[in-house]
Design goal:
By secondary structure, the protein is an alpha+beta fold. It has one helix at about 1-35, and strands spanning about 40-50, 55, 60-70, 75-80, 85, 90-95, 100-110, 115-130, 130-140, 145.
Length: about 150
């Protein structure tokens, strides 16, 4: 009877160890999946500014052509840059899902912007799971800004 109880206890200990290692392996697999799975959310095709010359203090319209594969909301950071970065307020957006779609964005060029060659840059930040954020940068073509003459 004592021998039987010892074997049963040993079997329970072995089973507990096996279950513990299976749990750890499952946890490592899940975390690895969340960190390294190649999510395909947004494919930007082009980001084009319609005006080639803009007066400081006026608006610039940029058209983004894209394909989106997942219905996930993005935090979008935007900036105007020519060596000096002019940041804009971060926005939240959920572009429609589909292929070969387009959307327009309006950017206001500040009145105090210097003359120069600028481009618009947006970064779409998608929180795909609790451990990972995917960032997709999109840059426009270059355009010229002419400083406004104020007296």
């Amino acid at each position: 009877m004592v021998m039987y109880m010892k074997k049963r206890i040993m079997r329970m200990v072995e089973l507990s160890i096996l279950l513990f290692f299976l749990f750890v392996a499952g946890f490592i697999f899940t975390v690895s999946w969340m960190l390294y799975y190649p999510y395909k959310i947004l494919e930007p095709h082009s980001f084009h500014v319609q005006q080639s010359v803009v007066l400081a203090g006026c608006d610039v319209i940029g058209e983004l052509k894209y394909s989106k594969h997942a219905n996930i909301r993005a935090r979008i950071t935007r900036q105007l840059e020519d060596g000096i970065v002019i940041p804009y307020q971060e926005i939240s957006s959920n572009l429609p899902v589909g292929k070969n779609l387009s959307t327009s964005y309006v950017f206001h060029v500040p009145k105090n912007a210097c003359s120069g060659r600028y481009r618009l840059q947006m970064v779409y930040n998608y929180q795909v799971n609790p451990l990972r954020v995917i960032s997709i940068p999109v840059c426009s073509n270059f355009f010229d800004v002419i400083a406004s003459k104020t007296k």
